[in-house]
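hey so u asked for the seq, here:
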Amino acid sequence: MEKPLKITALTPEELVLLLSRASRKAISGQDVLAIARTAGIVSAAGTINLIEYTAFLAREVSVGEN
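ran it, structure tokens below
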């Protein structure tokens, strides 16, 4: 049985898998980690909060629209 994903503490690999499945295209683990580092949301344990990651991307997109 697979362990349930904790969206507030995903490994970079888990986040890449989720984003790739959701977008139906390959997403680079390096890109995901670079974005998370830029956003300052990589925890001391090396995990990423999906909610914070999504919020960061939304802010980045909205800044370009203003």
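The mean pLDDT is 91. Residues 35 and 53 are 8 Å apart (CA to CA).
lmk if thats what u needed
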